[in-house]
TrEMBL record:
InterPro entries, per the entry: 2C_sensor_his_kinase, HAMP_dom, HATPase_C_sf, HATPase_dom, His_kinase_dom, HisK_dim/P_dom, HisK_dim/P_sf, Sig_transdc_His_kin-like_C
Protein name according to UniProt: Signal transduction histidine-protein kinase/phosphatase MprB
Organism encoding this protein: Actinokineospora guangxiensis
Co-factor requirement: Mg(2+); Mn(2+)
Leader peptide range in chain numbering: none
Lineage, highest ranks first: Bacteria, Bacillati, Actinomycetota, Actinomycetes, Pseudonocardiales
Pfam families in the record: HAMP (PF00672), HATPase_c (PF02518), HisKA (PF00512)
Bilayer-crossing regions: 153-172
Limits of the HAMP domain: 173-225
Subcellular location: Cell membrane
A GO molecular-function descriptor: kinase activity
Domain (Histidine kinase): residue spans on this chain: 233-448
Assigned EC number: 2.7.13.3
Length: 448
């Protein structure tokens, strides 16, 4: 595959191309204008000379002869028609041009352009009485002037091209240098560096690219720090039940625990810690599958009222065990919807698990189902700080902020709930609840 050309080469080439096109168009237009202007100037000069010579017609013959000599030295041929009809002065070509221009025909105009022997001649005729005077000039003089002017224009355009090339190189360096440095920073980021920043200099678009790369570097650093803290937290969460399971298992294996009631208590502890481990691992796997091909939504027609009633029965019992009042508010009629009932139940269980962990005995938990597409979970716990509701569904954020106040959480429950709702095509929000704690409201897509 052919390697792409550097941006410096492209910018320089583009500047030269634009300057070359401008020079070509300008040169063609200028050459035509200059040629026409030169001919008009020559014509006007010839007319002025004819007027001056005609004014000296009746003056002294000496002055007229001197004027004729000056004109001949300038390449202008005077041709005279005497009153007796004789044509004198000028060379053969000039005489022929004067006659064709109407020197002997009073009805003809005062000027003409004659083509003779491949030459273009300009003729100015002036009449006085029965005599006439013609001045014949070569249009090649105008062409010579035009060529000189065109040559000067070509020189100027050549200098313009040179300056365009220099300007293109300067512009290319101005654009390419910060882009190259930004690319170097990006490559270093790809190798794991997060402490480098691209220079925000140069044209506005280049500055925006550098700023975007810098924002990406900051976001990556923050994300990796969160992931590091999350992994540390998960490691701690895994270590705690594993330690308990191992300790009680060793006690049973070594015969340290022999009393029947102690054996039952140790077995129940192992069972509960194993269930906790299973729940944590399941949540981690589901969180890892979100957004991948492994995450599936099996949407079928379901009655959400039945799904929520089953969940309410389970969670009412769990809340009663710890002295937390549980209230379930739902319409009496079936609520039909096309969705994945298992994922909806998973979201509901995750929100209720989070609410029960934060709600003290005597404070309520309320589940509300409305119009088949919206449900909410509210609790009477301490709630969250106002600024924390916006980051409630980011992994580990709330756990790191409330680690010493609300033990027992894994930091992934709400993040998993948010990802599941997004996978279902819905939305989830967090805010303050009327009961004093937090409220999490889920809006699912309507009936299809």
């Amino acid at each position: 595959m052919r390697a792409p050309r550097p941006i410096a080469v492209r910018i320089t080439g583009l500047c030269l191309l634009v300057a070359g096109v401008v020079a070509l168009v300008g040169g063609l237009v200028s050459a035509k204008l200059v040629a026409d202007t030169a001919r008009e100037v020559t014509r006007q000069t010839l007319a002025d000379q004819a007027d001056v010579l005609a004014a000296q017609w009746d003056d002294s013959a000496l002055g007229l002869r001197r004027a004729v000599e000056i004109l001949r030295r300038q390449g202008v041929e005077p041709v005279l028609l005497r009153r007796n009809g004789n044509v004198v002065g000028g060379g053969p070509l000039a005489k022929r041009a004067a006659l064709e221009a109407g020197l002997t025909d009073p009805a003809r105009g005062p000027r003409a352009t004659i083509e003779l022997d491949g030459r273009t001649l300009l003729v100015e005729v002036r009449r006085s009485g029965g005599a006439a005077l013609a001045l014949v000039g070569d249009a090649g003089t105008a062409k010579g002037i035009g060529r000189t002017l065109v040559g000067n224009i070509a020189l100027a355009l050549g200098i313009g091209l040179l300056l365009a090339g220099v300007a293109g190189l300067a512009l290319a360096r101005l654009v390419a240098r910060p882009l190259i440095r930004t690319a170097d920073v990006a490559r270093a980021m790809g190798r794991g560096r997060r402490d480098l920043r691209a220079p925000e200099e140069g044209p506005r678009e280049v500055v925006r690219v550098a700023a975007s790369v810098n924002e990406l570097a900051g976001a990556l650093a923050e994300t990796e720090e969160r992931e590091r803290r999350f992994l540390l937290s998960v490691s701690h969460e895994l270590r705690t039940p594993l330690t308990a399971v191992r300790g009680f298992a060793e006690s049973l294996a070594d015969g340290v625990v022999t009393a029947p009631e102690d054996v039952v208590r140790a077995a129940r502890t192992i069972e509960s810690e194993a269930a906790r481990l299973n729940r944590l691992v399941t949540d981690l796997l589901d969180l890892a599958r979100l957004g991948t091909a492994e995450f599936r939504i099996d949407a079928t027609p379901v009655d959400l009222a039945t799904t929520f009633a089953d969940a309410a029965q389970v969670w009412s019992a769990r809340c009663a065990e710890v002295g937390v009042p549980f209230h379930y508010d739902a319409p009496g009629a079936p609520v039909h919807l096309v969705t994945d009932a298992r994922r909806v139940r998973q979201v509901l269980d995750g929100l209720l698990e989070n609410a029960l962990r934060a709600t003290p005995p005597g404070k309520p938990i309320v589940v509300s189902l409305r119009d088949g597409v919206t449900f909410s979970v509210r609790d009477g716990g301490p709630g969250l700080a106002d600024e924390d509701y916006a980051v409630a569904f980011e992994p580990h954020v709330l756990r790191s902020r409330y680690a010493g106040l609300r033990p027992g959480g894994t930091g992934i429950g709400l993040a998993l709930a948010g990802g599941l709702v997004a996978g279902l095509g819905g939305s989830i929000t967090a805010g303050a609840a009327p009961e004093g704690g937090a409220m999490f409201q889920v809006h699912l897509p309507g009936p299809r």
